[in-house]
UniProtKB/TrEMBL annotation:
<dbReference type="InterPro" id="IPR003616">
    <property type="entry name" value="Post-SET_dom"/>
</dbReference>
<dbReference type="InterPro" id="IPR001214">
    <property type="entry name" value="SET_dom"/>
</dbReference>
<dbReference type="GO" id="GO:0032259">
    <property type="term" value="P:methylation"/>
</dbReference>
<dbReference type="InterPro" id="IPR046341">
    <property type="entry name" value="SET_dom_sf"/>
</dbReference>
<keyword id="KW-0156">Chromatin regulator</keyword>
<keyword id="KW-0949">S-adenosyl-L-methionine</keyword>
<feature type="domain" description="SET">
    <location>
        <begin position="1"/>
        <end position="82"/>
    </location>
</feature>
<dbReference type="Pfam" id="PF00856">
    <property type="entry name" value="SET"/>
</dbReference>
<dbReference type="InterPro" id="IPR044570">
    <property type="entry name" value="Set1-like"/>
</dbReference>
<keyword id="KW-0808">Transferase</keyword>
<feature type="domain" description="Post-SET">
    <location>
        <begin position="88"/>
        <end position="104"/>
    </location>
</feature>
<keyword id="KW-0489">Methyltransferase</keyword>
<dbReference type="GO" id="GO:0048188">
    <property type="term" value="C:Set1C/COMPASS complex"/>
</dbReference>
<keyword id="KW-0539">Nucleus</keyword>
<dbReference type="GO" id="GO:0042800">
    <property type="term" value="F:histone H3K4 methyltransferase activity"/>
</dbReference>
<protein>
    <submittedName>
        <fullName>SET1A methyltransferase</fullName>
    </submittedName>
</protein>
Length: 104
């Protein structure tokens, strides 16, 4: 967590507008900010059509995105980021009927 916090601060100082950090478990956070596949751009939604799951393959933890329903051509792929509750709120822009209003 300490390294992830330092990276987030450094990215802000470098003018990088977004960071792509994904918590795998209590001790591991994957940083796809500067290197990662297109899945790092999947947006949050309060009523998502997918979910993220961490699985282990040959002793390595991997993040897998599973569909919750059929997804149409040109339909955006989304999942719930499940950010921890914090005092400083991050606004949610998903605009669904059941939007919680914040990511955290």
């Amino acid at each position: 967590q300490v390294v992830a916090d330092m990276r987030e601060k450094r990215y802000v100082q470098e003018g990088i507008g977004s960071s792509y950090l994904f918590r795998v478990d209590h001790d591991t956070i994957i940083d796809a900010t500067k290197c990662g596949n297109l899945a790092r751009f999947i947006n949050h939604c309060c009523t998502p059509n997918c979910y993220a799951k961490v699985i282990t393959i040959e002793a390595q933890k991997k993040i897998v995105i599973y569909s919750k329903q059929p997804i149409g051509v040109n339909e955006e792929i989304t999942y719930d980021y499940k950010f921890p509750i914090e005092d400083t709120k991050i606004p949610c822009l998903c605009r669904t009927e059941s939007c919680r209003g914040t990511l955290n």
